[in-house]
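Hey Z.,

So I finally got round to the LARABZUK thing we talked about over coffee. Here's the setup:
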Amino acid sequence: MANRLDEILSHSLLAALARKETADIAAMERQANARTARGFRANLRRVAESGPAVIAECKKASPSKGVIRQQYDPASFARAFEAGGAAAISVLTDEEFFQGSLSHLEAVSAAVNIPVLRKDFIVDPFQVLEAKAAGADAILLIVAAHKNEDLVELAAEAHRWGLDILCETHDREEIERALALGFDTIGVNSRNLKTLTVDPQTLVEMVSYLPENVIRVAESGIAHAEDIERLMAAGYDAFLIGETLMRQPDPGATLALLLDRQYVSEV
Ligand SMILES: O=C(O)c1ccccc1NCC(=O)[C@H](O)[C@H](O)COP(=O)(O)O
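And the result:
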């Protein structure tokens, strides 16, 4: 039986191919060429030198939780995240499972000065072009979603467009594959994308496999200032936080509280 990740990947590929069919590729390439990527990796590194580098995520819904936030204005969240001290913004663009959109990415990119990550299930080089044309500075590549040859091809496409890559892993074998392929910004997702269960212990166990020259990003299930402190002490440089922020009445103020090491109550 197909697991959740396989289901999402098949849908993502079909949707991307359908968009590609009707796309004006030349116009998209002109748009992509006109944009200069803001350094995602460099900004994580810069911020992490003096404290936690948070990638604050605009996330309306998810396969595991359904709708997370009814009133959803990603550009205004992104502005508030920037003011609240985010190092970068992540924008979910998958329509089917996350109620995201490329238009969200465009709006966020235009609204902030910090780098923006296209958080999606990238399975075709066309999606990399889409990302750059819509104003992304980085894309996500999920190791579990690909054979090594495909990761190399997609990474080359990202580099062709000047985009940085957040390479996502979940276990030791995936981390070893990511390192062998030369990725230098590596996330460990505490969410198992095949079952959607979150296990915070995964983050603690996996960080020892990531060398210090890599930017180490802890992903998913981060809810409290204490989580960030514990994960920083374990060796993480950066923290991808979605649902905790999105469920709060004022996501930007909540981020500022988290960065000020104040407790955030669960809602
Ligand atoms: O969030 C999900 O349910 C999900 C399901 C399947 C694939 C990916 C999924 N989420 C993407 C992410 O990795 C998170 O949005 C990101 O790490 C932030 O996580 P959180 O802070 O727990 O919202």
